[in-house]
Amino acid sequence: MLPPNARPLARLVLMSLLIAFVVSRVLSILIMLHKMPDVYLHVRGTHVHHLNYGIFLLAGVGAWLLFTPGPAAPAAAVIYGIGLGLTFDEFGMWLHLNGDYWQRASFDAVIVLAVALGLAGFAPPVTRWRPRQFATVLLFLLLLAGTIRLAAKVQPRIQRWGAGVGGSGSLEESGGPREADQISP
How do residues 156-183 score in pLDDT, each as one tens digit? Predict the structure, then answer.
């Protein structure tokens, strides 16, 4: 998939993506449960989501790699992975633009990125694949397409179910987080 000298960089990107994703999820949960202080940045009452930090990291690494001669450094791979993790953790928010952090699309996007980086970092070059490996990739793509199709069918049902719960459709009445546990933007 990648030249041999780039495979370690893909592994660094994968590792830092997963660490950034897990850390951002854990911190968000702890803040919502009031187990740690609110460390979110607010500018004039507006919550600056961590996808913005990721976008700035990605832009900075891109500029660094474009304007610095020589091969990519491992530090660039780590910063790039952190930027991907922060940005794609809130992928559902850029997809739906409704400000809801807890969207399945974010988790799915990180899984797809992790699989792609895992293949890039660990899989043999495509020219050396065996039929079993082609079958595995085909099966993965079919499962991915089926999951996307199923999610598209289930989403309207979930929205109708949420609107019908107790009349107000709040997550609190459906067993989800209470309004007091939510951090307002």
Answer: 655 565 555 444 444 444 444 444 444 5
135-163 exposure pattern, b = at least 16 Cβ within 10 A, e = fewer: eeeeeeeeeeeeeeeeeeeeeeeeeeebe
Q: Hey, what are 29's tokens?
A: 């949960």
- C-alpha dist (Å) from residue 110 to 54, 102, 179: 14, 13, 27
* Overall pTM > 0.90: no
Q: Burial, 168: exposed, middle or buried (Cβ in 10 Å; 0-12, 13-18, 19+)?
A: exposed
**C-alpha to C-alpha distance for 152 and 95, rounded to whole angstroms:** 13
Measured CA to CA, the distance from residue 17 to residue 118 in angstroms comes to 11
